[in-house]
What we know:
Helix 1 (20-26) crosses helix 3. The model has no long low-confidence stretch (mean pLDDT 90). Helix 4 (106-120) links the parallel strand 5 and strand 6. The two termini are 22 Å apart. With 167 residues, this protein is of the alpha+beta class. It has helices at residues 20-26, 29-36, 42-58, 106-120, 135-143; strands spanning 5-6, 10-14, 62-69, 72-80, 90-97, 125-130, 147-154, 157-165. It has an 8-stranded mixed β-sheet with strand order 1-2-3-4-5-6-8-7, with helices on both faces. The protein has one domain: Aminopeptidase (3-Layer(aba) Sandwich).
Amino acid sequence: MPFSGLDGELALSPLRPDDAEAHFAGEDPELIRWLNGGPGTLAGTREYFRHCQQEWATGGSLRAFGIRVHGVLAGTADLRFSGEYLAPGEVNAAYGLYPEWRGRGFATRAVLLALRYAAGEGARRAVIKAEPENANSAAVARRAGFELSGRVTEGGEVFERYFLDLG
């Protein structure tokens, strides 16, 4: 089901293939390090965004949003409703902003808006995983009300796991 959520100046809406160029242009070393695991290509970004659109269309487990500020793509947020390290009823939240949009609270607001969607889809608890060195991601989790539950190793990588009950 399509979703468009607003909180005033910030909006979330499903990522579209035509967002790929703006996203690719907005990537910087920080996004590449924490979210992508390595530099991508414009063609790869387009393919991934087509996959995201297909997930929306088919009711898949991924819901990828464009974070838009006054209509401009400022970053992305995604929810994964299933995965190897998720318990039933849990949803994993991930997010990233392009450099010019950081430091203004948009990531925290986008996470909270995405979690309203997740709760409406039946999620009971949200999870954010952050690498221990990613202080900015951890700060977003704390500002959004998540509590640190400890460190876990998943797929050979160490993460701090934060949880938030969605009520």
